[in-house]
C-alpha cells in the first residue's frame, strides 16, 4: 500500500472515529460551554499530547504491556474522574451566577493541560482502539519513524478539528442559554456533563 493510498484510507477512518461523541469530545464541549473556546485550547494541548503518546506506545508495543496491568489504568481513571466530577459539582453549586470555573483564576492553564492529558491516557478504550487501528497501516518493511510521523500528523489534525468543533458547539449553547435568565441551567448542564465525563472516565 503506497503512502498516498494509506493516507486516503486512514484519514476518513480516523476522522469518523474522532468526531464520534466520546470522553474527550464531551469534555471539549463542556469546557467550551463553561470557560470558552480560547481557554479550552489548553485542555486540547494536553489531550493531543496524551493521544500522541498512546499512538506511539501502541505502535511500539508498550500498550499491550500496559493492558496487562490494569491497576495502572485504575489509578489514573479514578484520580482523573474524581477531579472532573469535583469541578462539575462546583458548577452545579454556582446556581444563578456564572460558574467560578469561568474566571481566569479558578482553573489554571496547567490544570487544563493536565485534565486533557489524563483523560486521553487513562481511557483503556483509546489504547485498545490504537492497538487495533494503527498496526494495519504500518509497513514493517519500511522505516517505522516516517510512517509514524505521517499517521501522527493525521491523528493530531483530526483530533484538534473534532475538539474545536465540539468546543465551539458548547460556546454556541452557552450564548443561547445566556440570553434569558437561564445561566443556572447553563451551569447545571455543563456541571452534569462534567460529572458524567468524570464517572465515564472512572467507571469506563
Overall pLDDT level: 76
Flag low-confidence runs: 98-105
Q: Quote the beta fraction.
A: under 5%
What is the first-to-last residue Cα distance? Answer: 36 Å
User: What's the number of extended β-strand segments?
Assistant: 0
List keywords for this structure.
204 residues, mainly alpha, globular
Structure description:
By secondary structure, the protein is mainly alpha-helical. The chain is about 80% helix and about 0% strand. The model is unreliable at about 100-105 (pLDDT under 50).
Q: Which helices and strands appear, and what pairs or packs with what?
A:
Elements: H1 3-19, H2 23-34, H3 37-60, H4 62-67, H5 70-92, H6 109-121, H7 124-133, H8 144-177, H9 183-203
Helix pairs in contact: 1-8, 2-3, 2-8, 2-9, 3-6, 3-7, 3-8, 5-6, 5-9
Summary of the model, kept short:
The protein is an all-alpha fold and 204 residues long. It has helices at 3-19, 23-34, 37-60, 62-67, 70-92, 109-121, 124-133, 144-177, 183-203.
